[in-house]
Amino acid sequence: MENLALIDSFSEFKDDKLIDRVTLMAILEDVFRNALKKKFGSDDNFDIIINPDKGDMEIWQRRVIVADDDLDLDHLEITLTEARKIEPDFEIGEEVSEEVKLIDLGRRAILALRQNLISKIHEHDNTNLYKQFKDLIGEIYTAEVHHVRPRVVILIDDEGNEIILPKEKQIPSDFFRKGDNVRGIIESVELKGNKPQIIMSRTSEKFLEKLFEQEIPEVFDGLIMVKNVVRIPGEKAKVAVDSYDDRIDPVGACVGMKGSRIHGIVRELGNENIDVINYTSNIQLYITRALSPAKVSSIKINEETKRAEVFLKLEEVSKAIGRGGHNIKLAGQLTGYELDVIREGNVAEEEDDVELTEFSDEIDEWVIEEFAKIGLDTARSILKQDVNDLVRRTDLEEETILDVMRILKEEFNA
What are the Transcription factor NusA N-terminal domain coordinates in residue numbering (predicted)? Predict the structure, then answer.
């Protein structure tokens, strides 16, 4: 019973760790074998008998009987006199098995055994945790904010596991307080030493795809497929969807009546503007849809270079490019083509037009860049715009825009 009592004292924390008896006993055997090797140099002549049902184990040492004056290795051999104290009819050359009591190892050895056992169980827990979260990579996971640091948010799940949400994996508008519940996908799991480091992401395209699965029943059921997702986190995203069933409108089903279905996803992503489009293998039609809300006049495709010239009326150019160039950038990523915008317009006016960079001595370069971001890089393209619309679509003040228009008008009125 001495062994049983000691083992129970070693394993008193097993319930907290949710480790089963069989696994615990296997770890115990490994720990004790290491201790025997350390004390005797080898564990080859020791038998460890495990009884997981009782939670008990026995250690037996096997030694060969030698003459009293012939003892050389006392951990492998036993004298005839000592052997006959165990059983009177033993003879030289026979093998004796004798039980080793854990208490006989000494207090210091027992403390070392306990520490080694704790270490092994932590290692076992970490291995299981690593495997558990490896299987969850690419899946949505929810955890609670435990600590907010400048470059990282530390999250804790219901089982007390630590999950890391780095700053670069957060949506720019994300703001967290201790106790907040946070959703993201498990992006990666890495072993740092023996401890798994679990990384969550809210900026991944996979997160948006999985949100569609969670929020839209037809996607979850496989009636609608998400073919491709591209994002500028917190700003804009484009999602191409398709359905094998002609009776299902994939875009309508994803958006919902008055945007009811997609609203929850938009809110989760910090009001990220999400364009949902019908996927098609017709690349010209696909590019046209990807550039929505702009209306494309025509497209010239070069399959070898994966480039496409997109012809648009002057008033559609800024829509195609979008605020900050986001729309055309995402359309290119979605379709896999580099898109070049070609303006269509009045030939006489175009010949008479002037590149905005020609005014760099009168207009600041950063102001010129702001107009270029929304596809306005000539004098006439700006003069055709409404001032209030330009204030809304750029980061420029009304006074600055009016000043630019005055400079441009003087060019044509001179």
Answer: 6-125
Which distant-in-sequence residues (6+ apart) come within 8 Å of 89 by Cβ? none
The mean-pLDDT minimum among 83-97, 142-156, 157-171, 194-208 falls in 83-97
CA separation, residue 2 to residues 8, 21, 153 (Å): 10, 18, 48
Distance (Å, rounded) from C-alpha 409 to C-alpha 377? 15
| Rounded distance between C-alpha atoms, residue 328 and residue 276, angstroms | 15
Q: Inter-axis angle of helices 205-215 and 260-268, to 10 degrees?
A: 140
CA distances from 309 to 234, 289, 292, 298 (A): 29, 15, 16, 8
Give how far the C-alpha of residue 184 lies from the chain's centroid of Cα atoms, to the nearest Å. 8
Q: Answer whether residue 12 shows pLDDT above 70.
A: no
pLDDT bin (cut points 50, 70, 90) of residue 186 is very high
**143-201 is classed in which CATH architecture?**
Beta Barrel (2.40)
Q: With contact defined as beta carbons under 8 Å apart, do 168 and 185 qualify?
A: no
pLDDT value, residue 18: 53
| Domains in the chain: boundaries | 2-131, 143-201, 205-338, 347-413
Q: How high is the pLDDT of residue 19?
A: 59
Q: What is the pTM of this model?
A: 0.61
Fold that domain 205-338 belongs to in CATH: GMP Synthetase; Chain A, domain 3 (3.30.300)
